[in-house]
Amino acid sequence: MRDLAKEGSPAKGRAIIVPAICENKKHISTLREKYYHTREGRSLLSIIKQHKPDIYVEAHCYRQSAYEALTDPERKKKKGVPPLIELEKGTLIGSVSPFLLSRFAFETSILLEVPCRSLESRKVVLELLKVALNFGNRDEIFGEYRRRYPKQIGEAVGLFYAWFSGKTWPHRFILSKPFSNSKP
Predict the structure, then answer these.
(1) How high is the pLDDT of residue 35?
(2) What is the pLDDT of residue 179?
(3) Is residue 47 a part of any domain in this protein?
(4) How far from the centroid of its chain's Cα atoms is residue 85's Cα?
(5) Whole-number Å distance between alpha carbons of 65 and 181
(6) Backbone angles phi, psi at 139, to 5 degrees
(7) Host domain of residue 144
(8) Domain count, the chain
């Protein structure tokens, strides 16, 4: 994250990069409301409330032992959220927590998960974050992601819309018109 911050301003708007909210602490999933009552969770909520981002990207690292749970096709039944989809080298993409989606009107929100201590995966996530910084809106960001990972992004977007379509949250998504399925 620090390397990304050194690269300068985004093409449009401004970026707030928080290298780490939590380090070396007992893990509490951001899927659990309990997380948002911790010091780290309150700090995250404060940053979001203060800056009101249109584009919100979370990057986490996961232990290899968690890979199956994160990508489990039954994750929606077990955890209430769709499974994450692998892009490459263990880098996963999916939706941020329903807790955040129910409280903030992000135009775009993305969760990226990388294996802890994997330099190859960190390079992949850094490139994905650069896209989010340098493209100005959801369609441009996901157009570039789809160009790079057509099958995986198609699957991730499909899972998100299938899950999200029944929600009544304060969102800006136009669910009757999801991301363009045409190739850029």
Answers:
(1) 87
(2) 42
(3) no
(4) 11
(5) 34
(6) -65, -40
(7) 54-164
(8) 1
Q: 171, exposed or middle or buried, with CB in 10 Å at 0-12, 13-18, 19+?
A: middle
Report if residue 68 sits inside a domain: yes
Q: How far apart are CA 54 and CA 133, in angstroms?
A: 12
Q: What is the mean pLDDT of each run of 10 residues along the chain (184 residues)?
A: 60 67 67 87 90 88 93 90 94 91 87 90 91 87 94 90 64 40 38
- Give 60-118 as a 3 state SS string: EEECHHHHHHHHCCCHHHHHCCCCCEEEECCEEEECCCHHHHCCCCCCEEEEEEEECCC
| Sheet (strand 55-62) strand order | 55-62, 108-115, 91-94, 85-88
Contact 92, 112 (CB under 8 A): yes
In a domain, residue 153? The reply is yes
